[in-house]
Amino acid sequence: MKNTFQVSDHKTRCPWCLGFEEYVNYHDTEWGVPVWDDHVHFEFLILESAQAGLSWATILKKREGYRKAFADFDYKVVAEFPESYVQELLQDPSIIRNVLKIRAAINNAKCFMKVQEEFGSFSNYIWGFVGGKPIQNRLSSMSQSQATTKESDLLAKDLKKRGFKFLGSTTVYAHMQATGLFNDHLESCFRFGEV
User: Fold this and answer.
1) 136, β-bridge pairs
2) Residues 29, 54, 155, 37: is their CA dihedral positive or negative?
3) 111 is in an annotated binding site
4) 158 assigned to some structural domain
5) Nearby residues of 110 by Cβ (< 8 Å), 6 or more positions away
6) Which of 4, 42, 60, 110 has a CA that sits 20 to 30 A from residue 81's CA?
């Protein structure tokens, strides 16, 4: 991505975030920070499953629309969305109006709660795939980054077995990066040593 947005603080950042102010803020404050909170994990699962085939920038711009449309990412409420609300959501321009992705979010909310019942929390479950602590990748350039890992392959396979949808290995790896299971900030990025 070209650096079309200039940041005046002169900090070195991962180049993928240099498109617009909200993207830089997301990179600087959220991406790669370890998440232990189930509510936050569910938010990212909804957003990342909506992203399939699209750019993260597109989803980030619609994040507040998703927050409103999906009950502030309350999985207990989302799990109970009736078909009539699915039809309303298909008319809502503040989200990605894809019926399969909307239905997947509802389905995934139900699956999410089953995982919580089994493991005590979704956080306990997902962190088990990386041994309970962030994997520190040491990337010197974006060309070293991967789309998937053995951990994301295993997690995606297990999520599918548990009934989750729109969460293949690439999407799952994006989730693991966003929620800090992997630290994939470039070593030159000012956030690498902070998360």
Assistant:
1) 183
2) positive
3) no
4) yes
5) 79, 163
6) 60
| CATH number of domain containing 149 | 1.10.340.30
The answer to whether residue 127 sits within a structural domain is yes
What are the residue numbers of the active site? 26, 48, 56
- In tens, the pLDDT along 127-140 reads 999 999 999 999 99
Spell out the residues 6+ positions from residue 180 whose beta carbon is closer than 8 angstroms to its own: 32, 33, 34, 35, 134, 195
Tell me if 190 is assigned to some domain.
no
pLDDT bracket for residue 6 (50, 70, 90):
low
Question: Measuring CA to CA, which residue among 148, 146, 59 is closest to residue 105?
Answer: 59
Number of C-beta neighbours around residue 128 at 10 A:
12
Residue 189, annotated as binding a ligand:
yes
Q: Is the pLDDT of residue 178 over 70?
A: yes
In-domain check, residue 176: yes
- pLDDT value at residue 118: 98
Closest CA to 45 of 97, 114, 119, 111: 111
For residue 178, the enclosing domain spans 32-183
The overall pTM is greater than 0.90: yes
